[in-house]
UniProtKB/TrEMBL annotation:
PROSITE patterns: PGM_PMM. Transmembrane segments: none annotated. CDD domains: PGM2 (cd05799). It comes from Mesonia profundi. Its EC number is 5.4.2.-. Its cofactor is Mg(2+). InterPro entries: A-D-PHexomutase_a/b/a-I, A-D-PHexomutase_a/b/a-I/II/III, A-D-PHexomutase_a/b/a-II, A-D-PHexomutase_a/b/a-III, A-D-PHexomutase_C_sf, A-D-PHexomutase_CS, Alpha-D-phosphohexomutase_SF. Belongs to the phosphohexose mutase family. This is Phospho-sugar mutase. Residues 44-182, 215-307, 319-440 form the Alpha-D-phosphohexomutase alpha/beta/alpha domain. It is an enzyme of class 5 (isomerase).
């Protein structure tokens, strides 16, 4: 506690403004627990950039932690691009303080002689990724905490390819930031270097989204599709209704109670489309309107939840894996029919997502690249293999990317894509759900489940590390009575054969992830979240499905298996 108090007292110096000094003094005098959590570490970059609770302290999102990031990035940019006019694009979402923090970040970049393109109002994250390339910037920043609770904000960094920071730039930038002191931050804006952007970039992004997300559905099929859309109080309300309209979808009902951007997210417990309850208002409206499909997006508009009607005509929320295989199969089929495959195409997914993606790739004769969690790794694949054509890909956490014009998950274009699938299916007297069952019949029924345990604060972070440490020290040999065949330890970069004890190396960047492969094809993964105080457990199992009519029976058997496997952890 002595070291934490010393760090906190540094924030009482003249380097910090009066309000910050007052808040810090209040914590020192009145709230030892909060003081400890605010200063015990420096807020770190995770799988989705830097996210944290807003407030004073080194472990909080505030003008100084983000100013220090920006000062460090400014220095790094000058070293990496010494003979170029440096340009940065900045966007922000609907969260509290996002607009003010975006302006502070713009000020610091401009103070360092860097030209800034700052969106004049909130915009979805995928548009920022697009803007970086469209405006020939070397870097991009978006102020967002995605679907985290209202008290959070965040800072995502994009590089000149439009993808998020990856090695080696990430470590080099972090080193640059850590070598700075707070007094080194230059907050004195050069206003002539800050240019506000909006319509021109919007129009370019909308055109590119429609080009990549629309295919062969007729105007009649599109107008017949009944869509309910909710932005969950987030930024996608600025684009998705307009994009749907321009693409030809005329029957779109917006959940008006959730259309107003609001950082408190007043109508939902969590603004996360991964949580079925977040879509309740949209599902209720869908019943009233007899809609065919529901779309809900998270606060920064990069991930989407989808609900469609099942065999009984009831609305059901697709999980991220189901949405991903539906959209990927559609893209592959379209590519096969319209262009054919040259042998250099690939799709992409992540190590904790459904193995069904590899089945799809094999079926169409394309490659499936698999990386660590986070779309920055998919963007890196595109950058590392320019000789190959990226068709599409995603991850289980409700994100998908169509083509490479955006280098991050993109709920805007993915919304168009899933509506195209739904419109074509309805036009042929079918449904999205029936198409999913047909995929299961062809490739096997893959059933996945995610369990997330929230562990807040210092003690929670320690508990998560202890759980993973124990799993490594006491390697399970069975889950639910099914023998473990091999274990992939991404932190140790090795694969362990349980029967022989033989170890082989994993050629993938290190990450605190364990994946168990069972003898019947079941997979269990454990990892700490890179964006929230959670530890996550993923289970994937599969079985043959001979007839779509047997789906419910086979699914029930797989559900029982998942329940049995998860019983090992005693949740």
């Amino acid at each position: 506690m002595k070291e934490i108090l010393s760090k906190a007292k540094n924030w009482l110096s003249d380097t910090f403004d009066t309000h910050t000094r007052q808040q810090t003094q209040h914590l020192i005098e009145n709230d030892a627990k909060k003081l400890k959590d605010s200063f015990y570490k420096n807020l770190a970059f995770g799988t989705g950039g830097m996210r944290g609770i807003m407030g004073v302290g080194t472990n909080r999102i505030n003008k100084y932690t983000l100013g220090k990031n920006t000062q460090g990035i400014s220095s790094y940019l000058k070293k990496q691009f010494p003979n170029e006019q440096l340009q940065v694009a900045i966007a922000y979402d609907c969260r509290h303080n996002s607009k003010e923090l975006a302006q502070i970040v713009a000020n610091v970049f401009s103070a360092n002689g860097i030209e800034v393109f700052l969106f004049s109002d909130l915009r979805p994250t995928p548009e920022l990724s697009f803007a970086v390339k469209h405006l020939n910037c070397q870097c991009g920043i978006v102020l967002t905490a995605s679907h985290n609770p209202p008290e959070y904000n965040g800072y995502k960094v994009y590089w000149k390819d439009g993808g998020q920071l990856v090695p080696p730039e990430d470590a080099e930038i972090i080193n640059e930031i850590e070598n700075l002191e707070y007094q080194h931050i230059n907050f004195e804006a050069k206003k002539e270097l800050i240019q506000f952007i909006d319509k021109e970039v919007d129009e370019a992004f909308i055109a590119a989204s429609i080009k990549n997300g629309s295919f062969n559905a007729s105007a009649e099929a599109k107008s017949a599709l009944k869509i309910v859309f909710t932005s969950l109080h987030g930024t996608s309300i600025t684009l998705i209704p307009e994009v749907l309209k321009r693409a030809g979808y005329t029957h779109v009902k917006v959940v008006e109670e959730q259309a107003e951007p609001n950082g408190d997210f007043p109508t939902v417990k969590s603004p996360n489309p991964e949580e079925p309850e977040a879509l309740k208002m949209a599902l209720d409206l869908a019943e009233k309107e007899q809609a065919d499909i529901v779309i809900g997006t998270d606060p920064d508009g990069d991930r989407l939840g989808i609900a469609v009607r099942n065999q009984e005509g009831e609305m059901m929320v697709l999980n991220g894996n189901q949405a991903m295989v539906l959209m990927t199969d559609f893209l592959l089929k379209e590519h096969q029919q319209n262009q054919g495959f040259k042998g250099d195409e690939f799709i992409a997914s992540t190590i904790v997502s459904t193995p069904m993606m590899q089945k799809l790739a094999a079926h169409y004769g394309v490659e499936c690249k698999v990386g660590l969690t986070g779309f920055k790794w998919i963007a890196k694949m595109i950058k590392d293999f320019p000789e190959q054509e990226f068709i599409g890909g995603g991850e289980e956490s409700f994100g998908f990317m169509v083509g490479d014009f955006v280098r991050d998950k993109d709920a805007v274009t993915s919304t168009l894509l899933i509506c195209e699938i739904a419109a074509e299916a309805k036009n042929k007297n079918s449904t999205v759900y029936h198409q999913l069952l047909e995929l299961y019949k062809t490739h096997g029924l893959y059933q996945e489940e995610l369990v997330s345990l929230v562990k807040k604060g210092i003690e929670g972070a320690q508990e998560i590390q202890e759980m993973l440490k124990q799993l490594r020290e006491e390697t399970p040999t069975h889950f639910g009575g099914i023998a473990v065949k091999k274990v992939e330890d991404y932190q140790a970069s090795e694969v362990i054969d349980i029967e022989t004890g033989e170890k082989t190396s994993l050629d993938i960047p290190k990450s605190n992830v364990l994946i168990y492969h069972l003898e019947d094809g079941t997979q269990i993964a454990a990892r700490p979240s890179g964006t929230e105080p959670k530890i996550k457990f993923y289970v994937s199992t599969n079985a043959a499905l001979d007839k779509t009519e047997n789906y419910a029976t086979v699914k029930q058997e797989l559900d029982h298996k998942i329940e049995s496997v998860l019983s090992y952890f005693n949740f």
